Amino acid sequence: GFIVREFRTREPIVQLRVLGNRNFGMGTLIAGLYGFTFYGVIAMLPLFLQTLLGYSALDSGLTVSPRGIGSLLSMIVVGFLVNHIDGRILLACGFAIFGYSTILLSHINLGISMGSVAMPNFINGFAGGFVFVPLTTMSMGLLRKQEIGNASGIYNLMRNIGGSIGIACITTLLVRNSQTHQNYLGANLTAGNPAAMGILAGLQAKFTAAGADGYTAHQEALGALYRSVQQQAAVLAYADIFRLLGYLSLLCIPLVLLLDRLRHRSHRPAEAGGE
User: Is 261 left (phi over 0), alpha (psi -120 to 50) or beta?
Assistant: First the structure.
């Protein structure tokens, strides 16, 4: 109803017709997709570090903090390059770097060090500057001055909506993929699997040595084995999500090619008077 109303009224509160501008419409779509992947990575990493690796809130924050350092450096670099290189090239490089760093995070396991997460985070943050600045510039660059205020509201709204949808989707995928991997892993825990029986016997011997009777040791060993399966299934689910987000980032590169190149306006008096 809101959309219909905004298109039918003579003076709408939100001027949706501005989406008819090719660069702004496509830029808003790309911003929504980037919000999906960007906020998805931000939401998943602390969960992984604290629930599976046992990091404290402080350690988790220190591990993901290099993202901010990477963003700071990239803003400086992009601020210099944006006036010398086509914005579409910067955007394509940004999405390529972001996709690569996110796919690196899909190689996680329960034995990784803090540096194995911090370095991809730094690269991830560095890619952000190559996306945020050129994308905003190219999206707004062909709009009239009186349209920019309204357009910036739509642009930021779509980016945040993309992030909200992304967090909701990947949270659902995390639960479902964990269940799927747990079914596959559990199918191998049978009496006919020597490796599984060896692990179970080792756990049972450990609990027996700790003072448990035979039945209790066996039950505790089964519980420990099941918890291990749950953890491994969760790790595989996180890896699937990071891989998916990385591929989605790479898929944004062809969309960048649909943007029109911005031409720097001359500031000579004659041309300024003509405008």
Answer: beta
